[in-house]
Structure formats: structure tokens, C-alpha cells
């Protein structure tokens, strides 16, 4: 058997070559499918990327995507192909910011990469992957969901920054975050939504990364002083129902498995747990 790697110069080339493979396990591959779809909608989104497929006797057996400076995203593949992928990456990058993939696969990649490149790795989050096909709306929650508008941008930008700090331990400038929010509001497949209680904005949720049959729900955030009243559950349920009404067969989302509250909430409104994904970050300073 002959194992080879093919790299792609553009997201369109990557889509045409690998989407049929990725769609065989659509839920597991929502990041690669969604990021490429968004990139094609916003061509200036990324200036550098690693886009590759691994082949066994001509058939695709795995893919990898890294839109710098973001971590490497691994498709489902046999761990035997990790060495081949790292051999290719090794010729291009002295260091990478991290890697995300199923538990066994990401662990194997981290063990190999840290030994060869000397970067230390930290397991930053274990995420739960969920899929929804029908919504069970929560009862007795005040308010209603609406699409965000231009006058919501300053508040949403602040909420996005707070969300990134709290959930992802990441930070971004206010100007960059405002631009990101404005970009999302310009396209229905990247929209942000607000839960509104008598004119007061109390929670948000968004969608992004459309796939052939689904879309990912993300950016779920409620300010600390507004928590415990069911606003996030109601907002996510309403957004998910809207996506199904628009023709999506599925909604997907990731949770932090260290947060039992959010995992319980999503299951109560209809999200079904599919498995875990590890997110590792590498220490660039030690590369």
C-alpha cells in the first residue's frame, strides 16, 4: 500500500477534493466543513492555511486543516496516519499553535509532535460534540429571540470578548471583535441572535459554519448577573428551531465537558451527545 499526502492551495480546491469524504461523518467534521464554507463566503478571512488530504492507494483516508494562527484540525482517521501527516507538517512549520481531534487521534498526534518538535502541550479543553434534530423548548422562560441588529454591535462585541475570556481563555482587541461581529451580522449563515426580555438584552447565541445538512450553534453567552433564569437555554432552543425551520436537518454544538450545567441544559432541549474532542495548545516559546 502506498500512502501519500496532497496539499491544496485554495479552499475551493480543498472543498472539491475532500468534502465527499468529510460528509460521510458530517457531525464529526463540522469544523473543517464549516470553516471552509465560511472562508469561501469571506475570501479575505485567512491569509495562510495548511490544507491537506492523506491517501492510501489513491483513496482519501484523512484530512487536516490549519487556518493560521488557529490550531490544526484533524478529521477522523486511523492513528497510523499521524506519522505521515507529521512528516509533512515537519517540513513546513517549526511550531504550530495546537491541535484538535478525537481523543485517541489527538493524543497520538501530541505525543509524536512534542517528541519531534520539542513543544510542550497543554490539554486546554475536552469538548463534547452534540447533534440536534428536533427541539424540546424550555417552558416558563420570559422573553423572546430576535436577530441582532447594527445597534447591538457594541454590546455583542463586549459579550464576545467576555465569552472568549471565560470559555476559551483567549483575548482579542475591541476593534477586531467589533469587525468580527459586523461580519457575522452581514450574513445569515453567521448571524448572532439575542434573547430579549421586555427590551432588555439578556443573552446571545449565534450560528456559523454551515454544512450540507446542518449548521453549528456557538457564541452562547449570558452575563453572570443574568444567569440561572433559563435565558441561554431558551435562546439556543429558539435559534436551533429557526435553523431547522429554514431547512437544516441538524444543528451541532460543542460544550466544555468540565461544565456539567451546560451539558445538561443542551440535552434537555434535544441535543444528543456524540463523543469527545480534545483541544490541545502548544507552547510556542519552547519550540
UniProtKB/TrEMBL annotation:
GO terms for molecular function: acyltransferase activity, transferring groups other than amino-acyl groups. InterPro entries: Acyl_CoA_acyltransferase, GNAT_dom. It comes from the Bacteria. It holds the Pfam family Acetyltransf_1. Keywords: Transferase. Residues 143-287 form the N-acetyltransferase domain. This is GNAT family N-acetyltransferase. It comes from Phototrophicus methaneseepsis. The lineage of its organism: Bacteria, Bacillati, Chloroflexota, Candidatus Thermofontia, Phototrophicales.
Amino acid at each position: 500500500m502506498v500512502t501519500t499526502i496532497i496539499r491544496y492551495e485554495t479552499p475551493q480546491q480543498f472543498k472539491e477534493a475532500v468534502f465527499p469524504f468529510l460528509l460521510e461523518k458530517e457531525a464529526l467534521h463540522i469544523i473543517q466543513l464549516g470553516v471552509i464554507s465560511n472562508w469561501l463566503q469571506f475570501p479575505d478571512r485567512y491569509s495562510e492555511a495548511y490544507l491537506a488530504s492523506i491517501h492510501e492507494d489513491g483513496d482519501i483516508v484523512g484530512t487536516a486543516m490549519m487556518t493560521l494562527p488557529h490550531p490544526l484540525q484533524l478529521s477522523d482517521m486511523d492513528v497510523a496516519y499521524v506519522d505521515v501527516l507529521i512528516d509533512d507538517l515537519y517540513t513546513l512549520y517549526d511550531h504550530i499553535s495546537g491541535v484538535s481531534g478525537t481523543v485517541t487521534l489527538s493524543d497520538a498526534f501530541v505525543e509524536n509532535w512534542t517528541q519531534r518538535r520539542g513543544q510542550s502541550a497543554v490539554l486546554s479543553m475536552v469538548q463534547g460534540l452534540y447533534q440536534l434534530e428536533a427541539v424540546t423548548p424550555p417552558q416558563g422562560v420570559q422573553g423572546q429571540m430576535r436577530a441582532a441588529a447594527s445597534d447591538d454591535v457594541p454590546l455583542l462585541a463586549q459579550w464576545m470578548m467576555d465569552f472568549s475570556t471565560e470559555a476559551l481563555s483567549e483575548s482579542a482587541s475591541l476593534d477586531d471583535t467589533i469587525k468580527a461581529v459586523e461580519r457575522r451580522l452581514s450574513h445569515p449563515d453567521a448571524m448572532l441572535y439575542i434573547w430579549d426580555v421586555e427590551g432588555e438584552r439578556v443573552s446571545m447565541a449565534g450560528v456559523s459554519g454551515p454544512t450540507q445538512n446542518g449548521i453549528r450553534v456557538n457564541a452562547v453567552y449570558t452575563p453572570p448577573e443574568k444567569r440561572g433564569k433559563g435565558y441561554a437555554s431558551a435562546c439556543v432552543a429558539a435559534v436551533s428551531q429557526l435553523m431547522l425551520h429554514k431547512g437544516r436537518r441538524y444543528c451541532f454544538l460543542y460544550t466544555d465537558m468540565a461544565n456539567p450545567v451546560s451539558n445538561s441544559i443542551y440535552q434537555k432541549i434535544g441535543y444528543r451527545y456524540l463523543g469527545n474532542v480534545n483541544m490541545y495548545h502548544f507552547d510556542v516559546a519552547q519550540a
